[in-house]
Amino acid sequence: MAETKRIFTFLLRFLAFCTTLSAAIVMASSRERTTVLALSFEAKYSDTPALKYFVIVNAIVSIYGFLILFLPSKSQLWRLVVALDAVFTILLTSSISAAMAIAYVGKEGNPNAGWLPICDQVRKYCNQVQGALIVGVFSVILYMLLFLYSIHTALNPILLEKS
Amino acid sequence: MAETKRIFTFLLRFLAFCTTLSAAIVMASSRERTTVLALSFEAKYSDTPALKYFVIVNAIVSIYGFLILFLPSKSQLWRLVVALDAVFTILLTSSISAAMAIAYVGKEGNPNAGWLPICDQVRKYCNQVQGALIVGVFSVILYMLLFLYSIHTALNPILLEKS
């Protein structure tokens, strides 16, 4: 039973690592050159602070997710993991919210502020950003599950004594 | 000792309630009418989905924060509060990140997307949004503290037996 649980959480953590890594890579590789009214310009993620923040957070969480795959199951450090899972869940939530808010303006614009949507000009770029955000949502959900599981393990005194 | 702790958390929860309520009110009352090139327009929070989301989340958390002030200390519902604190901390983080991402574009613009800053035209509106965001940051910090304290209480079996 304990063995099944360990394999299950390992798989969940591996999946979470894959989603954050691919979200970071897809977002970081999003760029498109286009020409509007004889003016050539390039849309890329690093133009927008919110998308840069998204890439940085996902990259950091990927490194954390990768390292934690190799943490021995008997390690005392698992108690620290509850706190780290909480911190990274909150960071991921914050980065995806900021990126989504900006992506929404990019898609729909904000007529009252005079901000025009840019997705008609740079369709490929927009689709790539959207893809990264969808993967990002999955990574947030996975980290929330992992965090809930961490709390559950920490809350259960019998499991605590075992570890 | 238990009495001091109870008063301390009550004060913390009261403060958290005040900050979320004032963040919602300050943001919701932010509007300014201005004239640009003979065109009169009004800037208000409800034009921007991210700011609307900020107001809604802060209003919901205010109601939760208000109700919880009256929860008897012996209630079994305190175990549920750990989960609710987690949910609302994440919601607050998400709403303030989205609102900040948009407020940043409002202040600095995004030259690459052709979005001009609007804060020079509607200075009073911008300052009010900024004020709401600053109060919002405090409310997020307070809810994180409360959540950590909830976990700590739940993790401590001696306290659990007492309640």
From TrEMBL, chains A, B:
Casparian strip membrane protein domain segment(s): 5-142
Residue ranges of the TM segments: 50-71, 83-106, 132-155
InterPro entries to which the protein is assigned, alphabetical: CASP/CASPL, CASP_dom, CASPL
Membrane topology: Multi-pass membrane protein
GO cellular component, one term: plasma membrane
Alphabetically ordered keywords of this record: Cell membrane, Membrane, Signal, Transmembrane, Transmembrane helix
Primary subcellular site in the record, as a coarse category: membrane
Record's signal peptide: 1-23
Location in the cell: Cell membrane
A Pfam family matched in the record: CASP_dom
Family classification: Belongs to the Casparian strip membrane proteins (CASP) family.
Subunit composition and interactions: Homodimer and heterodimers.
NCBIfam families on file: A_tha_TIGR01569
Identification of the protein by name: CASP-like protein
Origin species: Hibiscus syriacus
Organism classification: Eukaryota, Viridiplantae, Streptophyta, Embryophyta, Tracheophyta
